[in-house]
Amino acid sequence: MTIEIKVPQLPESITDATLVAWHKQPGDAVQRDENLADLETDKVVLEVPAPANGVLREVSVAAGTVVTAGQLLALIEEGAPAPAPTAAAPAGGESGKAKAGEKEPAADKDKLSPSVRRLVQENRLDPGTIPASGRDGRLTKSDVVGFLDKHSSAAQPAAAVAAGAALAKPAVSAGARAEHRVAMTRLRQRIAQRMVEAQSTQALLTSFNEVDLTAVNQLRARHKERFEKEHGVKLGFMSFFVKACIEALKRFPVVNASIDGTDIVYHEFYDIGVAVSTDRGLVVPIVRDADAKGFAAIEKEIAEYAKKARAGALAIEDLTGGTFTITNGGVFGSLMSTPIVNAPQSAILGMHKIQDRPMALDGQILIRPMMYIAITYDHRLIDGRDAVQFLVTVKDSLEDPGRMLLGV
Questions:
Q1: pTM
Q2: Residue 104 confidence (pLDDT) above 50
Q3: Active-site choice (28, 231, 379, 400)
């Protein structure tokens, strides 16, 4: 029986997707629930699973095509026998693919992460020829980048091709300046669009302060081992910042509000977006009702979101909504920055690198772990006084964490 494979129902507010990669070709055997193709939307990557065992008979849409929900992608012949594999070795006596009865190499394209798969496809590489250093012999992004660096010089084009790597960058003469053009991912296009929209539709202004994290460091040092033992997650900094921001949002509800036409919408809940950097770009999963969650629950949720984001496994529901966002440029070494508001929200808090600095305290010069913090806000809605006092409240809560427990 022939089964039609169609584009699945797309998440709400998403009208189309780009078919970025096929993992099976016509004639390949497929198993039920095996991923046949990747569809990239503005926010997430969706998989197209096989509905039954059989053989992929026909592919109707090429990689790189924009598709819509319900569009025909391929045909599967259910229960059809797979063609017998060929055992012939490639020229030169090297085995580029597994022979009949042998196990496929760990770097097989079906086992690649979305970011590695995209890099391999963009550069037209054979993943089986690239030495893999990941767990269980999996291919990592650094493996691919290192392979490209090794084989992209003009002096070694023949060696690269002989190794099975058809590089996207053409060979050039010595001294020539090369260029490498690739299409922007859907996520990167969406990020670019939202950044321009935020700059052009909001009156953005940034205020700064600095926080002495001595008390937070001491609290973490005293309890981190017991915390991790009891809750199964490390006690990081982000839960302290989420809790401190919630205290400040409660005192200054306009920072948790948004503009809708000529109305101001005051959100009486606290859905905090936490920016996560991935190979595909920055995504902002939402910790919902964060005010009702303890430190452990917040840390667990953030860790799970980060894991899913880097694996390209976030669902659209994980990314929609949010009343306020926190972004941490400090993990990359940023000392100070002006983050851009995640519209339609009205404000965002920027964390930065913790750096020991001399501070004047009670007439003494002491070395303290200091962090600059920033709030970028929509000045159409939030006055400077509210923004500055919001930032001071965050600072006070972090410098005396007991305040968050006592509500003072």
A1: 0.66
A2: no
A3: 379
